[in-house]
Amino acid sequence: MTSPSTGAPDVLVSARGLEVHFPVRSGGALRRTTGLLRAVDGVDLDVHRGETLGLVGESGCGKSTLGNALLRLVPPTGGTVTFDGADVTRMGRRELRELRRRAGMVFQDPFASLDPRRTVAQTVAEPLEVHGLHPGRQARAARVRELLQLVGLDPGVAARYPHEFSGGQRQRVGIARALAGEPDFLVCDEAIASLDVSVQAQVLNLLRRLQRQLGLTLLFISHDLSAVRHVSDRIAVMYLGRVVEVGPASAVAAEPQMPYTRALLSAVPLPHPQLERSRQRIVLRGDVPSPSRVPSGCRFRTRCPDVFAPCPDVDPALQPVGSAPGHVAACHLHGVVGTPVERERPDAPVDAGDPAA
Amino acid sequence: MTAPVLEVEDLRVDLRTPRGTAHVVNGLSYTVGAGETVAVVGESGSGKSVSVLALLGLLPARTATVTGRALLDGEDLLTMSPERLRQVRGPGVGMVFQDPMTSLNPVLTVGRQLTEGLRAHGTPSKAAARARAVELLGEVGLPDPGRAVDRYPHELSGGMRQRVVIAIALSNSPSLLIADEATTALDVTVQAQILDLVERLRTEHGTGVVWITHDLGVVAGIADRVLVMYGGRCVEDGTVDDVLERPVHPYTRGLLGALPDLATDDDADLATIPGTPPPPTDLPPGCVFWPRCPVRGDTRCETEQPPLAVVGAGGRALPHRAATWCAEREAS
């Protein structure tokens, strides 16, 4: 990981103008397409080799879809994704299979993401079989034992079934499976969200240890800002399908430059009563607009406490902000930079203040 | 302080399960004053939800045995007739659960669900109940309440649904509000709005609040007093400052140590609590936390159950108490 001031960072995964739009269909027999749900809507994001990039945002902001699109688990409808220099959106079957080996995924719900009829050994060995790694039954069994040890499980549990495990142990099995193909890149999508506090800490520590030990590149998707702050080298903030601020974790946490990031951080309750009593909280008005009715210009303007003249007319681009190198934000408060809105665009409503949105 | 709204004394809940009797709540005592917020914290399986479901008679009578006393404005909830209990739920106690989508009826409009409670508890006319429903929706900060009243739950966002549930819980101005993980499923920004709302209602109406959560950050912001549950017992209680700033019980310390802190730049590993909570069918005989305790000492921890005893300065109206032999050991 190199900072931009000393040279170009070594980029492993890169998205440019990435879009994932889903058609919104009407009910009834005709199923006509009546609109577009812009889950990911023009994301530029680099994941540097060897770093942990935290991706935060409220539910529905598109962070999971972005994680899926980077691995082509959902097909992007626009823009490009490159993985180690290769264009993911144009990969054929064989290249895609190699991508699946090199990029793993840890899912949120360890109860839903493990097959209840397969033993731990079968689950963890599946990627080995698919990719033809460690051929031979004994070699495979040895590798499974090694993987279980790596994630802190007793290799003796290999013959057991998922229902015999607690949530934290299941999540370890999920991590072992994701690591089976010796990936370079791991996407953790809300990997600690369904775990108890004390177990969350165990899994966070494990992920950090694995990242250092194996030199992994990690995309850590979570709505839990404290956890993201703890594990990440850099943090990217997403709002309504767009990355609106990226920077070193300490800079984003201590000096957020975009009003949305500020509000998000101020809303995180901290376990210190005296601090909580004195803290000024920025309470945002209303809810996130629907991704099928994205506001014109800056998409945060309908809830922004600092909204001013250019916000409805110019779609802000990411620009350098603050004092830390590599800290960028899409906000007109730092100078009006971006694309003017085409007024005739029919799907850009003037106001998204609809309570149903 | 005036007479407490809720007085729970030695509450015990046993559930019959195929694996034997589960001792889910084992002697819980606390009081909630008017306008006071008591937070009950603990991890899943600590018995915090069951302890409030028992108060309202919401556990299946065939499998649950509830003993102890729970006085709501002086009247025992646990010995009440089902008819009386039905009268008390609403004007006496309002309840908010974690998932607003499962606590709302998907085929009825928001207005129907709000007026149901109002009409059952004394607002006779349909028109008056509807007007009050619109007023309540406005009070909980729903935009455009006049239109929202005719909407169905699926047309609302998670935060708005939870506001509707809170509006229903508050519709008969209860003296006590019980919230069970009410903001857990919500985004932090929406959670902040809901916490503000509850805070306002508490100061304006003097409602007593029991707030059940695993989130110690939320506790720090809203609670006057905190009760930490583990293995169906209260292992530590006191003012929010006592419990979060000067925790005594190793479990409370462990929970706080396991939290990543947004405010500091600390790169060290998080503290963890090894192992898992004991199954309620097979609780250890001594200190419930003993098998996982990082500072467990003599055989006393293993064999003798520590009482909830005052720690630190005594003689205060709201003492700081902990059920552990450690405090004694540290002092000596």
**Order of adjacent strands in the largest pleated sheet of chain A:** 6-7-8-3-9-10-13-12
Mean pLDDT of chain B equals 88
**CATH structural architecture of the largest domain in chain B:** 3-Layer(aba) Sandwich
Compute the number of helices of chain A: 10
Biggest chain pair contact, residues each?
A-B, 46 and 53 residues
What's the alpha carbon Rg of chain A, rounded to whole Å?
22 Å
**CATH class identity of the largest domain in chain B:** Alpha Beta
**CATH domain topology of the largest domain in chain B:** Rossmann fold
Shape of chain A: globular
Describe this structure in words.
The complex is a heterodimer of chains A (357) and B (332). Chain A has 357 residues and is of the alpha/beta class. Chain A has helices at 63-70, 93-102, 120-130, 137-150, 167-179, 197-214, 225-231, 249-254, 259-266, 273-278, and strands at 11-25, 33-48, 52-56, 78-83, 86-87, 103-106, 185-189, 217-221, 234-239, 242-248, 314-316, 319-320, 328-329, 338-340. In chain A, the strands form 3 sheets. An 8-stranded mixed sheet of chain A has the order 6-7-8-3-9-10-13-12, sandwiched between helices. A 4-stranded antiparallel sheet of chain A has the order 2-1-4-5. In chain A, helix 3 runs parallel beside helix 5 (167-179). Chain A starts with 10 loop residues before the first strand and ends in a 17-residue tail after the last strand. With 332 residues, chain B is α/β, with parallel strands linked by helices. Chain B is built from 13 helices and 12 strands. Chain B has an 8-stranded mixed sheet with strand order 6-7-8-3-9-10-12-11, sandwiched between helices. In chain B, helix 4 (110-120) packs across helix 5 (126-139). Chain B starts with 5 loop residues before the first strand and ends with a helix. Chains A and B meet through helix 6, helix 7, helix 9 and helix 10 of A and helix 7, helix 8, helix 9, helix 10 and helix 11 of B. Chain A: GO terms for molecular function: ATP binding; ATP hydrolysis activity. Chain A: This is Peptide/nickel transport system ATP-binding protein/oligopeptide transport system ATP-binding protein. Chain A: Residues 24-265 form the ABC transporter domain.
